Amino acid sequence: MPLSLWVSLAAVCAMGAMSPGPSLALVLRHTLGGGRVPGMAAALAHALGVGFYALLTVWGLGALIVRFPSLFQGIIWAGAGYLAWLGIKSLRAGRGAMLAASAAETTRVQAVREGFLVALGNPKLILFFVALLSQFVTPETSLAGKAVIVATAMLIDGGWYVLVAMSLSHSRVLPWLQARAHWIHRLTGVMLLGLALRVALGPLG
């Protein structure tokens, strides 16, 4: 995969990981309830779930493109619509939405279990990944290229939420984020709407 194309892949994966949602709330809860280690455990387990969905997606995309081009195009449009819906939802989010979490006591085992299940329990990830990875997967994509795509999605997701857990383990960070949550939501919403438009326009070169 050319470096320029990989940079585009990394950018859209980062955009997906950074968008506020249940995954962020999960890492917040385990970090506040158990400290840095449970928060990081939840982050890494979530990344495994993301990798599983990314693997399913890259395995099926090439065959779907060849056998059912019309169906594939319909899924792409549905994915673009979903990204746009996420963007609008972020733009309309309240000042503290999805940046608040309870500090109930938690353990590493709970964090790992819930991190993995939150990812697997979100079937919208399939739609999200089809929308994203359709820009990078073709019937000619090699096994190594698909492995790079899956690894990139996992590493960026896990790396982002580990960074969140490490940052939030300092008590001053969360209030700072909560005070600026409306700007975080707005920025995320604009980026997601831009990504939806990019998906709708077709594959990257």
Automatic annotation (TrEMBL):
Transmembrane segments: 41-64, 71-88, 116-136, 143-163, 183-201
Highest taxon of source: Bacteria
GO cellular component, as recorded: plasma membrane
Subcellular location(s) of the protein: Cell membrane
Keyword Transmembrane helix recorded: yes
Keywords: Cell membrane, Membrane, Transmembrane, Transmembrane helix
Entry-linked InterPro entries: LeuE-type
Main location: membrane
Bilayer disposition of the protein: Multi-pass membrane protein
Entry's Gene Ontology molecular function annotations: amino acid transmembrane transporter activity
Record's protein name: Threonine/homoserine/homoserine lactone efflux protein
Lineage: Bacteria, Pseudomonadati, Pseudomonadota, Gammaproteobacteria, Oceanospirillales
